[in-house]
Amino acid sequence: MTAGRELGGFPYGQEQKKGDGGMKLHGTSQVNEQGQLCIGGVEATELVKQFGSPLYVMDEAAIRANCQAYYQGFVASGAGEVIYASKAFMTMAMCRLIESEGLGLDVVSGGELYTAKQAGFPMERVYFHGNNKTDEELALALDYGIGCIVVDNHFEMKRLDKLAGERGVKVPVLLRITPGIDCHTHDFVRTGQIDSKFGFTLPTGQAAEAVGAVLACENLDFLGVHCHIGSQIFELASFQYAAEVMMGFADELRAKFGCTIRVLNLGGGFGIRYTEKDDPADVADYARLVIEAVQQEAQKRNMPVPKLVVEPGRSIVATAGTTLYTVGSIKEITGVRKYVAVDGGMTDNPRPALYGSKYEALLANKANQPNEEVVTITGKCCESGDMLIWDLSLPKVESGDILAVTCTGAYNYAMSMNYNRIGRPAVVFVRDGEGSVVVKRETWEDLVRNDQIPASMLR
């Protein structure tokens, strides 16, 4: 697949309106004439029959379309590079897809780095983030020859310099800067994000001191700076302001140290639509705004325009993912609430329990039927907090129905767990009427695979 290939399907963010329920569908999802939800040309009920449930379904064409929107906005324009934030969703198949679309890769652990290597991803296109990288992880990154390490603190800087010196290599690095921007306010409070576990704080002078320190390291090649102002951001002006602040900092560094940054990484955080309350911007508008902001600041300060890097994760995969569940028990408390339990829950989607995250859903096998009742979707864990969706309007729900929860492509599989010794679901990529397993369903045998019984207990 060549980067930027035209799919002829839909641009980033395009949504189709469901029939009577009025819910928004994403990517290739649609309701067919039989009233069945289809994803990638396959009926959701058929996917469950073939692959079981719960089931993570990833719309491959939608992922590629989102990748291409970023590629066109930042790479094809000559402004810089797009690196996919793999923490959102990572498998070896996803690494292959990202490579084929011309994007780089952002990893935050040795496990993610190892996965990329096993998938054959070009190591020179990998950036390594994290606030507490171990010596083992740093050594692995150096031995793999990755493209860049984003240094988070002085402790890491010293150890990386030593490890690189022992190997006789000079490592390209960025410094992670905490700019002090509260991205969720309109007045851009400059002290709002100083208190963070990540990076060197800019307003306190720590960031400038860190640049001086990295320039003194013999085995580190200082490329530039990185910042990340938050997640699920809808206000494009926040990104513009971050670009202006970071370019101002780059100007200070030039005056103080005589160095010119070659790379400006503005991180990720571009928001997506989970529910009707979310109103995301268009990737093209986002790209245009931050590119112009950087260029204008460079011109104003008589500086070279640095290579611009962005790190989308959620906005690449979230809307491309749908989780399919089978409805089991139904409990109605007259005058209070109707609980509908599914065969998954917080083990495959902990975000509602952790963050109070909101999702939309529909009955895949009754997708064209009008809503008749309001129910609450609960998971199967022995945990009162295992609630997926409160007060959801649906057609008449019956045991055996297939519930499709949309926009589960980011931080669902990635954060899944084995609480109550429940196995993780399979992950299936769908495209052009076919589904392919990219992660096998965990079995009960898998759950005990690493267990050991001490010899003293076997006597």
UniProtKB/TrEMBL annotation:
Residues 59-409 form the Orn/DAP/Arg decarboxylase 2 C-terminal domain. Pathway: Amino-acid biosynthesis; L-lysine biosynthesis via DAP pathway; L-lysine from DL-2,6-diaminopimelate: step 1/1. Its cofactor is pyridoxal 5'-phosphate. It is an enzyme of class 4 (lyase). It holds the Pfam family Orn_DAP_Arg_deC. GO terms for molecular function: diaminopimelate decarboxylase activity; pyridoxal phosphate binding. One of its GO terms (biological process) is lysine biosynthetic process via diaminopimelate. Belongs to the Orn/Lys/Arg decarboxylase class-II family. LysA subfamily. This is Diaminopimelate decarboxylase. It comes from Heliophilum fasciatum.
